[in-house]
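Technical note accompanying the year-one report. For the benefit of new consortium partners, we illustrate the data format agreed upon in the data management plan: each record pairs a sequence with a structure-token string. No post-processing was applied to the example shown here.
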Amino acid sequence: MSFIAGVLLGLSLIVAIGAQNVWVLSQCMAGANRLAIALTCMLCDAALIVIGVFAANRLTEVAPFLLPWLTGGGVAMLLYLAWQAGYRAIKSKSGLRTEQVKPQHWWRTVMAALAISLLNPHVYLDTVVLLGSIGAQQTNPALFAVGACTASVMWFGALTAFSPKLKTLLSSPFRWRVFDSAIALILTGMAVKLITL
């Protein structure tokens, strides 16, 4: 169950469109070093997820009084992200927008992927703070971390492999709204489950 929770929460957080996903799509659609991009993003995510889950787990063992605060923070953030996705699903009238970019040498692409992954404050909130605090509450935090890492591998693997098809699919406003609606429901469900733990 912890593994499934990790996969679902990991996917619902990572697929919410942001600077990293738009950059990855733009690069891949331009034909730039898909393997280098995918591996860099996967490794960055996995490292941050493992650090977040095990640091939060250790913190709750040393200072158990922090557990309600971590839980409350996790619930608040999940509900906020669910609200954002729901709002986009209701109000948005456009699909995914990307720009064509000029392909670069693979090592430049890796450096750019590291920068877009590690210099984005949102990635730390998602992986270290949110996934970490929720992972620490699981019956098996290690399995939760593996599940969240699996979600990252699945997402970036699919994003880089199928980016030309995704561009067509997600450019439809209706499909994008369905996509955001599903994310909102998953995040709300995870928040409710966290409250009941």
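Partners are asked to follow this layout when depositing records. The radius of gyration is 17 Å.
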